[in-house]
Design a protein that fits this description.
By secondary structure, this protein is an alpha/beta fold. The protein contains eleven helices and eight strands. The structure holds pyridoxine-5'-phosphate.
Length: 244
């Protein structure tokens, strides 16, 4: 089965644009729960540009679904994660000046640091996921340091599709397929996400090793027009159609 994790960060982005209490990302998480999401994903950024500490506290208390906390590998975030003990922790690279998470973690170059960083998180019972590109060296390093999960970055594939660069998109998709197969062979659970839309989700959902997709920005954008439940329902239908 392919799970859908709904990322609610950009409900908080809209809220923070005006400094009001609304729209409330926890309300979005509860709605996503009713609409059939399998998990809720939230990225607590160092600069708190969308999700706040209070949001994480409320998500941990108020939702029944597994919470997947995305965060940078910093001491502050490690403390927060150990306090809330979410079901899953996805480590992502973070640069203050970026608009969104632009690349994957360089696990191969930071093996020792990341192995030490994830050890207490694993001991606390969290499933640790590393957000990486499809390069074999990154996937092998993730397995070597004891991550349970890798999340493959689908942003480049989605951008190439939007830009109509179809040959390059297909090459990127083939590399993601090889990456998913390698990760699975090495015993890692394989997730994917970033930039996915109704148009791009099918070929990714069709990769047989994938167990979870994490999707946010497009679902929140679409919900302006159709409502969140309908957007989630349509995304699920497309995921299902990709896997007969
Ligand atoms: N997965 C990871 C690791 C991410 O960092 C993000 C963005 O926060 C997503 C999935 C969701 O990406 P999008 O909002 O583009 O669907």
């Amino acid at each position: 089965m392919l799970r859908l994790g709904v990322n609610i960060d950009h409900v908080a982005t809209i809220r923070n644009a005006r400094g009001t209490p609304w729209p409330d990302p926890v309300r979005a998480a509860l709605l996503a729960q009713q609409a059939g999401a399998d998990g809720i994903t939230a990225h607590l950024r160092e600069d708190r540009r969308h999700i706040s500490d209070r949001d994480i506290e409320r998500l941990a208390q108020e939702i029944r679904l597994p919470l997947n906390l995305e965060m940078a590998a910093t001491p502050e975030m490690q403390r927060i994660a150990l306090r809330h003990r979410p079901h899953a922790i996805c480590l992502v690279p973070e640069r203050r000046e970026e608009r969104t998470t632009e690349g994957g973690l360089d696990v191969a170059a930071n093996r020792a640091f990341l192995a030490d960083f994830i050890a207490p998180l694993r001991e606390a019972g969290a499933r640790v996921s590393l957000f990486i590109g499809h390069e074999p060296a990154q996937i092998e390093a993730a397995a070597e340091i004891g991550a349970a999960v890798v999340e493959l970055h689908t942003g480049a594939y989605c951008d190439l599709d939007t830009e109509g660069r179809l040959a390059e998109r297909d090459a990127e998709l083939a590399a993601l397929a090889r990456g998913a197969a390698l990760a699975d062979e090495l015993g890692l659970e394989v997730h994917a996400g970033h930039g996915l839309t109704f148009d791009t989700v099918g070929p990714i959902a069709a990769l047989p090793q994938l167990r979870e997709l994490n999707i946010g920005h497009f679902l929140i954008a679409e919900s302006v027009f159709t409502g969140l439940a309908a957007a989630i329902g349509e995304m699920r239908a497309r995921m299902k159609a990709a896997r007969p």
